[in-house]
Design goal:
Number of strands: 11
Distance between the termini: 42 Å
Order of helices and strands: HEEEEEEEEEEE
Helix content: under 10%
Shape: elongated
Strand content: over 45%
Radius of gyration: 21 Å
């Protein structure tokens, strides 16, 4: 009898596996981003909100933030989407990705960017064509500039979505 159970258990292993999605997307809260180092960061103006977003509390200065882009499938990064709130009528929430080589954390292999449209908006923009053709990178960073608050409210990063090809 033990042999029969072993054979029936093996038959379930050979059953067809479900098809996997062609894309793998991970959504991270804006609080995943931190103030960028250097004199332009103005980290004291970053508000970390309970809803997971971050915003700029300064009435006069844009803030610089950076987010690590987690790419867990080597060579398959497709795009990064930035969900934002922009309450400034003339400045934009703008971001760019930096791709770093495996032999030097400061060498930019590629740099692509995106930005919110002019005027007051809440929405999403997507940065594509991020990966270098060599695929010998070390890590990816998303760096964003968030405009100052206005009488209409604070601007900020609500979330980022990293999409990979499976």
């Amino acid at each position: 009898m033990p042999i029969l159970f072993a054979l029936t258990g093996m038959s379930s292993l050979s059953a067809p596996q479900p098809a996997f999605a062609e894309e793998d997307g991970k959504l991270y809260p804006g609080t995943f981003c931190t103030g960028q180092y250097g004199p332009i960061s103005y980290k004291s103006y970053i508000r970390y909100r309970a809803d997971g977003s971050i915003s700029n509390t300064s009435p006069t200065k844009s803030i610089a933030v950076q987010c690590l882009v987690i790419n867990d499938v080597l060579g398959n990064l497709k795009q990064v989407s930035v969900y934002y709130s922009d309450n400034h009528t003339s400045n934009k929430v703008s971001c760019y990705t930096r791709t770093h080589l495996s032999n030097s954390s400061r060498t930019i292999v590629s740099q692509t960017s995106g930005a919110s449209p002019s005027g007051r908006h809440t929405g999403v923009f997507t940065i594509k064509n991020i990966e270098p053709s060599s695929k010998s990178y070390k890590y990816f960073m998303l760096r964003c500039s968030v405009p100052p608050k206005t009488s209409l409210g604070e601007s900020g990063i609500n979330a980022i979505k990293v999409t990979e090809r499976d």
